[in-house]
What does this fold into?
Amino acid sequence: MNILRHMEQMRRLLTERGACEVPQYPEPLAQVWYHPDLLLAARSGGKANCFCFQTLWQRGTGVTAAGYSCMPALVWLMDCSEKDFSAIVVDFISDLHFALTNSREDSGFSLVADNGCYRCRNDRGCCWKLQYNGVSCGNISLFSELVFQPLERSAVMLVLDLAKLPLLLHQKDPGQPVLWAEKSAAGELLALRAWQLKRPVASRENLPQRQVDPGLELCRLVSVLNAETLVAEQDEAQLKQLSKSINDTVKQLLLERSESKVAGRDAGN
It folds into this structure.
């Protein structure tokens, strides 16, 4: 079993559930909601059901706690509420386990409250670890606030670690390397390792200047926020000003999209 096979099965199962796949953001993200399309969907107030295969920054543990590494992940912004997300997750994981192992026996997956989950100062919510036989392989976050703004509808995001799942689900040969595809070890693919070079630079001088297009401007602001999240000492006033700029741009984009839909309906009548 390999990462590509896992992605194919996840894509099929999520498409069957009506989820729309969006492209990954072209840099590793420190937080899943930094993806501009997921942020817009979560902030729209309507039902959101979309996913992507996104490279994420992963904080180190133990002696490497101060460092970061990259992990390929599934990120799913789920169409559910804080009341029913667990049932939807269980249903998806059960179907995924069957698709990958051809077994309907107890999958071994469990949800555990994560009190130590790293949170940004400009979001609010809670987090659960997703474990397979006691080993962490992802998480679920329930957000009530993003970029210092309360959400009309809580956003639920599922993250699965694509590098870890193949090893956990297929433990007959625990010493074997994780494969990207058949006969192709993930650790030998330079394109996967190159993400390590994409660590954002916090210096404002090295980032693109303000964009006239609001969509590109949101991407620019997200990249600034992503870079500054990885800096140990953050300027509180600067963070709030950046968050305000993001909120203003999000509101502008949502308004433009709403007006575009109305114009489209009027033209069709």
Remarks:
- The domain at 3-200 is CATH 3.30.930.10 (BirA Bifunctional Protein; domain 2).
- The two ends are 52 Å apart (CA to CA).
